[in-house]
Design a protein that fits this description.
The complex is a heterodimer of chains A (413) and B (75).
Chain A (H helix, E strand, L loop, with lengths): L1 E3 L3 E5 L4 E5 L1 H8 L7 E6 L4 H10 L3 E6 L5 E4 L7 E3 L9 E11 L7 E11 L14 E11 H8 L4 H9 L4 E7 L5 E5 L2 E7 L12 H14 L4 H18 L6 H4 L23 E5 L5 H16 L3 E3 L1 H5 L6 H10 L3 E5 L5 H12 L4 E4 L5 H9 L3 E3 L2 H12 L7 E3 L2
Parallel strand pairs in A: 1-4, 1-8, 2-6, 4-5, 8-9, 9-10, 10-11, 14-15, 14-16, 16-17, 17-18, 18-19
Antiparallel strand pairs in A: 2-3, 6-7, 11-12, 12-13
Chain B lengths: L12 E7 L5 E5 L5 E5 L3 H8 L4 E9 L2 E8 L2
Antiparallel strand pairs in B: 1-2, 1-4, 2-3, 4-5
Classes of the chains: A alpha/beta (413), B mainly beta (75).
């Protein structure tokens, strides 16, 4: 198998992280337990020496074309939209690839490609400005398009995911479309069945989401190339992504790639969560007095919506006010499936909402960077799961809202 | 076959060593001088090691042969 994709500098501010990675490199690394995988990628003179060190450390065979400037992704948090360094980068030589199976990621760099394969998996991988499915330069007998929900909606200009997938299915030689819907799993549409099938996520105790889509695509490509049908392959992909999210180990174990569910390999992973038919509703409890408070509430709301949840946010759905807001806030809480509590600062209103939620049997996930264990005793004792890592708190909350049982305790970042 | 990684525990501190070959490799070495495994380097880390700065790596977590470490300036 050949993986065509980017090798980029990746940097996260919180939690601190810096690595040479990128979709292509990460996907090739994911499959190194099994197949003889080659990476075709682009490098510039700045990244070239360190990238070759990384390739060698990970035992990746790479073929490289030269690009004209460095490319990197800078995230404030793994769940926020990145800034891209080098968005105008390009490579001059055509990326030429011919193999039985090829996994193709969209790249930041502009340039031509000549890719031939019996089976190709294409993941457009663009954080923004995606308007059309670019299959130029890809000739495959059978093609699967794997994209996340936001990309799929942008590709099809349609709000409904199933409709979007059907539109993409009309592209030449596409036999399957897989829509990654993050915390809600994925939808799989095949050319032989007009009804999309759901494959659920495998919840993990902690979640490192950056790069999970790359691992998902590589798991799918491997399983599909070994004869799995698209739905089985998507299940392997979901397991592979969970392995990555729970361990940050890019080398997906052979058992997972060959169909063993991740929960039989990784003790921190749960069995496949049956995706809810409706979007789960999360109540976002937290103070909104300072700019920092507001920023966190705004970020969490946007991320939760992106994870496929609906959100009741007292700030957005009721607004600031006096005593009269209490009953309206609690009305919202009553209809929620789970609560995300932003606990740093120990705002009395937030603590009250957590208590109310517990009394009414709602699962509570807390985000708390301070280690005020004395203050957390009642919450954890009553069933709350507290995370020091924002990504983990957000994903765990959306899973809890879909019925995944929480594991009460404190998970430090 | 057990590897050097199997003997590691969270909190262990390893030396960070640059092996100048083509391409250069950064490796973690235990107190007996045994090479435990490769470290995914950044360009800055390689450059600083070349300039003679010393670093150490503390094991943060262990998962299926992959070890999360925190690399910091050695005391």
């Amino acid at each position: 198998m050949i993986v065509v994709g980017g090798t980029y500098q990746e940097q996260v501010t919180v939690p601190a992280y810096e690595e040479v990675a990128g979709s292509g490199l990460r996907a090739a690394a994911a499959l190194r337990s099994q197949a003889r995988v080659h990476l075709v990628t682009a490098l510039d003179e700045v990244m070239d020496p360190v990238a070759w060190s990384v390739f060698k450390t990970l035992s990746i065979d790479a073929v490289v074309v030269e690009r004209n400037e460095p490319v990197g992704f800078r995230y404030f948090s793994p769940v926020t939209t990145p800034s891209i360094d080098g968005p105008s980068a390009s490579y001059a030589r055509t990326l030429t690839v011919d193999d039985d199976v090829v996994l193709v990621f969209g790249m930041v760099e502009a340039g031509s490609r000549d890719i031939r394969a019996r089976q190709a998996v294409v993941d457009p991988q663009r954080p923004r400005d995606l308007t059309a499915l670019d299959l130029d330069g890809i000739a495959a007998d059978e093609l699967t398009v794997v994209a996340n929900a936001r990309e799929m909606r942008a590709l099809a200009q349609a709000a409904d995911l199933a409709d979007s997938a059907r539109q993409v299915m009309n592209s030449r030689n596409v036999v399957a479309v897989v829509v990654k819907d993050s915390a809600r799993g994925c939808l799989v549409l095949t050319s032989s069945d007009d009804t999309p099938r759901k494959v659920g996520p495998y919840p993990t105790r902690s979640v490192w989401p950056l790069g999970s889509g790359d691992i998902f695509a590589s798991g799918y490509a491997y399983a599909w190339s070994e004869g799995a049908d698209p739905i089985e392959a998507a299940r392997v992909a979901s397991s592979s992504a969970a392995w990555w999210c729970g361990t940050r180990n890019s080398r997906v174990p052979a058992e997972i790639l060959t169909g063993t569910p991740v929960d039989q390999v990784l003790s921190d992973a749960a069995s496949e969560l049956t995706p809810a038919d409706r979007a789960p509703l999360v109540y976002l409890a937290g103070p909104f007095f300072t700019l920092a408070d507001r920023w966190l509430v705004e970020t969490c709301r946007n991320v939760l919506l992106g994870l496929g949840a609906k959100v009741f946010s007292p700030l957005h759905d009721v607004g600031p006010g006096g005593d009269e807001v209490a009953s309206q806030d609690l009305d919202g809480l009553e209809h929620a499936d789970a609560v995300l509590a932003l606990l740093d600062g120990w705002d009395p209103g937030t603590v009250y909402e957590v208590g109310w939620a517990h009394r009414h049997g709602l699962p509570v996930v807390g985000f708390l960077q301070g280690s005020a264990h004395e203050g957390t005793k009642m919450m954890v004792g009553a069933g709350a799961e507290l995370h020091g890592d924002l990504s983990s708190a957000l994903y765990r909350c959306v899973w809890a809202a879909q019925g995944h049982p929480l594991s009460p305790g404190r998970v430090t970042a | 076959m057990p590897s050097a990684v199997d003997a590691l525990s969270v909190g262990d501190v390893l030396d960070v060593v640059l092996r100048e070959e083509q391409p250069p490799l950064v490796v973690a070495v235990d107190e007996t001088g045994l090479e435990v495994g490769g470290i995914l380097p950044t360009g800055q880390l390689i450059e600083c090691l070349r300039q003679g700065f010393r670093f150490e790596a503390e094991v943060q977590s262990l998962n299926g042969g992959a070890v999360q470490i925190e690399v910091r300036a050695a005391e």
